[in-house]
Amino acid sequence: MDKSLELENLNKKWLEECQCELKKTATQAVPGVGNPDADIIFIGEAPGRSEDKLGIPFVGAAGKFLDEMLELINLKRSEIYITNIVKYRPPNNRDPLPEEKSSCREWLLGELKIISPKLIIFLGRHAMNNFFPDLQISGAHGKLLIKKFKGISTSYFFPLYHPAAALYDGSMREILKEDFKKIPKVLKEIAKRKV
C-alpha cells in the first residue's frame, strides 16, 4: 500500500478512536502533513489557534519562522513531514498534560512507522521530553541524540528550540538558526553511519 494511503487510513482510524480529552474543546484534529517519503520528520508540541482553525500543523507565526529556517538549508515543506505530539489544541495554548500526550502517542508512533524517516527533529522541549524525559532542551538543543526505540525505524533525533520561543525571545532566533544550519551535516553523518 502506498504511504499516503496508509497515512490517510491511520488518520481516519485515530480521528474516531483517539480518546484525548482535548477533543472536547478543540475545533478539529490536526494530523501531520507533508511528504510521506520524507527523510526528516519535525515533531512539535500541539496545535495553536491557527492550526486548530485550519487543521494543518505550523501555519501560524511559528510556522512562518519554520518556513524561513527551512529556506536557510534549501528545504521545502513539500520535502519534509511535520506533526505534533498532541493532535488537538490545548485550551488557551497551555502545555499539553501527560494524559493528553499519552492519548495521542499511538497516533504519532503510527505516523513515524509509516514514514520511517532517517531523522526525527524535535521542535521544543515537550516533543523532546516525550522521547527523552530526562533531558533539558537548554543542554540538548543542536546535538544529535542516538537511541533505539521499539517500533521506530530511526535511532537519530535532533532537538531544537521551538520556533515560537524565538518569537517571544529575539536572542533565541540566532540560536535556532545556527542549530538549523547543522541539519544537512547531521543527515550526512547519519548516511555515513549507515554505510
TrEMBL record:
Xref: SUPFAM superfamilies: Uracil-DNA glycosylase-like (SSF52141)
GO BP terms, alphabetized: DNA repair
Protein name: Type-4 uracil-DNA glycosylase
Keywords annotated in UniProt: 4Fe-4S, DNA damage, DNA repair, Hydrolase, Iron, Iron-sulfur, Metal-binding
PANTHER family: TYPE-4 URACIL-DNA GLYCOSYLASE, TYPE-5 URACIL-DNA GLYCOSYLASE
UniProt domain Uracil-DNA glycosylase-like: residue ranges: 31-181
SMART domains for this protein: UDG (SM00986), UreE_C (SM00987)
GO MF annotations in UniProt: 4 iron, 4 sulfur cluster binding; metal ion binding; uracil DNA N-glycosylase activity
EC number, UniProt record: 3.2.2.27
Family designation: Belongs to the uracil-DNA glycosylase (UDG) superfamily. Type 4 (UDGa) family.
InterPro entries documented for this protein: UDG_Type-4/5, Ura-DNA_glyco_family4, Uracil-DNA_glycosylase-like, Uracil-DNA_glycosylase-like_sf
